[in-house]
């Protein structure tokens, strides 16, 4: 039997309704989900029970292959428990790297530490951070197998992830001249304000697409970020995916934030403010959420018109942060503005930019010393 309860949450000074459903799943375990509406909460419950039913037969089978168990583990232990984007990342690794691999075809009980090491070594041409993701998916799957008494020990523990000391790939950043050319190419563009918002607020594209007029306080000149548009992929029992577009709340507390609205963006957006504040700021002409695919397509056209190579949309966010660093902004303030979960994330991503800024500061001191002596 399921019980539903409505409650209110306050984020960034705004009140939001949430529905929570508590129930006992088909395996007899107590479970709960929350969603913005009662039907959505019920859908999560139904999907959970459906996935469990699909694997009840497998649950009694001790002769799992690594592929079978990894898939079972992901669907039972990760689906609807992590963000849609995180789960999609897990499934991409499973489908592309584990499902049909040599280790994937092995029985769980037959896998040794050397088999795991050989699997990881096959990807020594990739970045350490990428291989680490493969390692973690396997590590958690085998931990789950140990917890379910399918195997006695976890052979993944102790494996060495290749390329730990390899220099990380530098992020892509626009130079000031490139940024100037990009901005000039936005003149007359139907969605120009969208890209200017990305370039001068550091918001993620999903956050921008989910932005409604009620999220912009034109009196205080602030933007409240409290949701994001994500492509959600669900999976049938045979692994067949189906995609849908949905609004999601940020998975990390730091992603909820209020940021300043630059004056030039205020001047561009305020005259466009409609009576219905629930409308999307950058929605389609029919009032729907803009497609991320179309946003990328328009962006590619802008790059071509600007005489620039096609770069990823996330480069706009990286460029925003870089300009802040160059202006002397502190890493802590940058962390708060862009919604990183901790300051170490900011330092890891933009460490090389910070180092270059330090060198530039030293050069200025040298010039000052030479001028004074």
From TrEMBL:
Keyword DNA-binding: yes
Keyword DNA-binding: yes
CDD domains reported in the protein's UniProt record: INT_ICEBs1_C_like (cd01189)
Alphabetical list of InterPro entries matching this protein: CB, DNA_brk_join_enz, Integrase-like_cat_sf, Integrase_catalytic, Integrase_recombinase_N, Integrase_SAM-like_N, Tyrosine_recombinase_XerCD
Keywords assigned: DNA integration, DNA recombination, DNA-binding
Tyr recombinase domain boundaries: 169-363
Record family assignment: Belongs to the 'phage' integrase family.
Protein name: Site-specific integrase
Species, as recorded: Zhenhengia yiwuensis
């Amino acid at each position: 039997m399921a019980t539903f309860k409505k409650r209110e949450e306050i984020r960034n000074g705004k009140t939001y309704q949430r529905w929570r459903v508590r129930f006992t799943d088909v395996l007899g375990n107590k479970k709960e989900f929350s969603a913005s509406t009662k039907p959505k909460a019920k859908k999560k419950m139904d999907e959970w029970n459906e996935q469990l039913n699909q694997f009840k037969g497998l649950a009694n089978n001790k002769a799992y292959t690594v592929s079978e168990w990894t898939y079972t583990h992901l669907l039972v232990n990760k689906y609807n428990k992590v963000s849609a984007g995180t789960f999609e990342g897990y499934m991409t690794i499973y489908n592309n790297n584990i499902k049909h691999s040599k280790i994937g075809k092995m029985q769980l009980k037959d896998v040794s530490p050397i088999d795991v090491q050989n699997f990881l070594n096959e990807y020594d041409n990739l970045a350490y951070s990428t291989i680490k993701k493969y390692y973690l998916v396997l590590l958690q799957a085998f931990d789950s197998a140990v917890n379910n008494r399918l195997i006695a020990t976890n052979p993944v523990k102790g494996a060495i992830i290749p390329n730990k000391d390899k220099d990380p790939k530098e992020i892509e950043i626009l130079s000031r001249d490139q940024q100037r050319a990009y901005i000039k190419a936005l003149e007359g563009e139907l969605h120009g304000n969208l890209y200017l918002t990305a370039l001068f607020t550091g918001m993620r594209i999903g956050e921008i697409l989910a932005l409604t007029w009620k999220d912009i306080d034109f009196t205080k000149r602030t933007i409240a970020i409290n949701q994001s548009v994500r492509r959600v992929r669900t999976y049938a029992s045979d692994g067949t995916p189906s995609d849908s577009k949905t609004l999601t709340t940020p998975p990390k507390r730091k992603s909820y934030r209020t940021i300043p609205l630059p004056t030039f963006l205020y001047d561009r957006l305020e005259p466009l403010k409609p009576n219905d504040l629930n409308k999307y700021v950058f929605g389609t002409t029919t009032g729907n959420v803009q497609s991320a695919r179309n946003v990328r397509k328009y962006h590619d056209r802008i790059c071509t018109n600007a005489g620039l190579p096609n770069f990823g949309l996330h480069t706009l966010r990286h460029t925003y942060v870089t300009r802040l660093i160059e202006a002397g902004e502190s890493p802590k303030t940058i962390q708060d503005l862009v919604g990183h979960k901790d300051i170490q994330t900011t330092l890891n991503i933009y460490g090389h930019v910070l180092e270059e800024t330090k060198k530039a500061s030293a050069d200025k001191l040298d010039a000052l010393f030479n001028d004074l002596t």
